[in-house]
Amino acid sequence: MDQATIRHRLHALRERRGMTQTDLSSALGFNDRQTLSDIELGKRSVSPAELVKAAGLLGVDVGYFTDPLELAGEARFSWRQSADSADCLEAFEATAGRWIATYRHLGRMRGTPVNSSLTRVGLTIKSSFEDAGAEGDAIARALGLGDVPALTLASVLEEKHDTLVLFADTVAGVSGAACQFGPLNAIIINRGEAEGRRSFDMAHEVFHLATWHEMPPRHIEGDTRVSGNYRRVEQLADNFASGLLMPRQAVLDWIAGHPVPNDQAELPVWIKHAASHFHVSGQAFKWRLVGLGVLGKAAAGRVDDGLIRMECGNAPLPPLFSRRFMETLGWGIQEGQLSVRRAAEVVGTTLDELGDIFAAHGLKTPFDL
Predict the structure, then answer these.
(1) Which of 34, 52, 67, 284 has a CB 3.0–4.6 Å from the CB of 280, allowing a cystine?
(2) Which residues have a Cβ under 8 Å from the Cβ of 263 and sit 6 or more positions away?
(3) What is the pTM of this model?
């Protein structure tokens, strides 16, 4: 591992631990703060002995600074978390970081693209919600997502735009996340959520990845202490997601073949049928109708959300991670870039479970069980 990565990780971890350069310099036995400053600025190399001592002081294994399968503060995450506590999030972020770092490392070894090419969108904090919805609609067309974008969004993001999409079993309260790791974009989706919620979360995270420079998202979106500007960014993201998943023309074409019922009592069943077609929640489709002027706000307000809640039943969960991620992991195992046990450690499974994930994606298991 190069010195640039080591110093970057050292700097990021020091700040995360709330230590000043003076604090850590003193603990390391340096004569003054300038020595550590020179290390963090790349003017001086850190010795192996100094690195071991720093690891002990900062509470990590020395491999934290040198392991290419660790993100170690190099990425920016934004989590959709409904729970009030973030106690478990730091550990899970480290786990998710290993997935993304492993993908990047093996991609580099393999010579495959690890540079995401998702187009930025022309929205700002002052954009209207209508503009956000229209931009989502336009992005759906630009990406060639078809009439039911929820069915193709994940595969198009991965295969055409090198944006990693991972379905995972997240910690409680987390529905999804966006991650920027240098030129690599990644989206994490809680596969245990209802299908409509998974679709909406993915489209919501696309907004954040496409507007990160203009409107950087919060590390935790569920933080109730955020300013009005951040709340507005999230509302823009939701309207963008609505337009992306339910493009205006696709919705109007569907309605042409399935007219809106005149009887208010029949409306909930009709909305659920339409939402099922677009693979979104009933509530999301109801408010998309309002945005398109198909349904008035008063009429929408009379539709009980409980009556349009989609039935999950025994619908199968999407396989863990993604086919592209598992293909890359399999290549690493076959080519000796990654041991089977290290691969299982990265994804947090037993060897048998790792084999099951390959099979779930229709891939040959690259090792003997």
Answers:
(1) 284
(2) none
(3) 0.89
